[in-house]
Amino acid sequence: MDANAVLLATALALIMVGFLMFEGISIGCISYVVINLLCGKRDKLTPLMYILAALFVCKYIFL
């Protein structure tokens, strides 16, 4: 399965369940980075994606 499809499915599912767009986008961003790292597609990820994913993870840890 393509990482972009997983990102879209995760984001849409969390937006529908949680009724919050920010939650869906943040979990989608985290899952996009994790899935691309696990699939060995590090060249697809920009430094901004790593930073956003790290900030979103910090948000869930500390809030």
Instruction: Give the DSSP E fraction (strand runs of 2 or more residues).
Output: under 5%
Total count of domains: 1
Total strand segments: 0
* Uncertain residue ranges: none
Percentage of residues in helical conformation? over 70%
Distance between the amino and carboxyl termini:
32 Å
Please tell me how large the radius of gyration is. Answer: 12 Å
Given helix and strand content, the structural type is mainly alpha
Query: Quick check: average pLDDT?
Result: 84
Count of helical stretches = 3
C-alpha geometry: flat
What about the largest sheet?
Answer: none
Order of helices and strands: HHH
Task: Report what the structure shows.
The chain has about 60 residues and is an all-alpha fold. It has one domain. Helix content is about 80%, strand content about 0%. The protein has 3 helices and no strands. The chain has helices spanning about 5-20, 20-40, 45-60. α1 packs antiparallel against α2 and α2 crosses α3. The radius of gyration is 12 Å and the shape is flat. The mean pLDDT is about 85.
